[in-house]
Amino acid sequence: MHYAYMITAPVESPRFNQALVQLCTDIAAQITISQVFFYGDATAIGTLDEHSDNFQDMIDLADEADIALHICSAAFQRRNYRISQLGQEDFHFKGLGQFIVETTAAEKIRVY
């Protein structure tokens, strides 16, 4: 199985927590996760200057399972955000169109 994730919820929200729980479940079930794409309000994750628990959990999961973490470049710019040092270390920018093209092979896209 091959899944992708799109997260639109802010990092400290219950929906973000749900995404983390589901990501853990999918990884434990040996589902291949191609990427986690942060869109809308979730793009603020790239501005964080310190690791919150949710932030660190996402980074750790991605590292352990070799999952790419992408921030939507247009949504990030539209909000006039500036990338933090941590954001530069842990995330890459990608367009929404690129995300859609790359997920055509995915059996499921989980949206939070």
CATH topology: Hypothetical Protein Ychn, Chain: A
In which order are the strands of the major sheet placed? 4-3-2-1-5
DSSP helix count? 5
Strand residue content? 15-25%
The CATH class assignment is Alpha Beta
Essential attributes:
22% strand, 112 residues, alpha/beta, Hypothetical Protein Ychn, Chain: A, globular, five-stranded parallel β-sheet, 5 strands, 5 helices
Describe this structure in words.
With 112 residues, the protein is of the alpha/beta class. The chain has a single domain (2-111), classed as 3-Layer(aba) Sandwich (Hypothetical Protein Ychn, Chain: A), CATH 3.40.1260.10. Helix content is 42%, strand content 22%. It has 5 helices and 5 strands; from the N terminus they run βαβαβααβαβ. It has helices at 14-28, 53-65, 73-78, 85-90, 96-102; strands at 2-7, 32-38, 68-72, 92-94, 108-111. Strands 4-3-2-1-5 form a 5-stranded parallel beta sheet. Helix 1 (14-28) links the parallel strand 1 and strand 2. Helix 1 runs parallel beside helix 2 (53-65). The longest helix is centred in the first third of the chain and has 15 residues, at 14-28. The chain is globular and about 35 Å long. The two termini are 19 Å apart. 24% of the residues are buried. The model has no long low-confidence stretch (mean pLDDT 94). Pfam families: DsrE (PF02635).
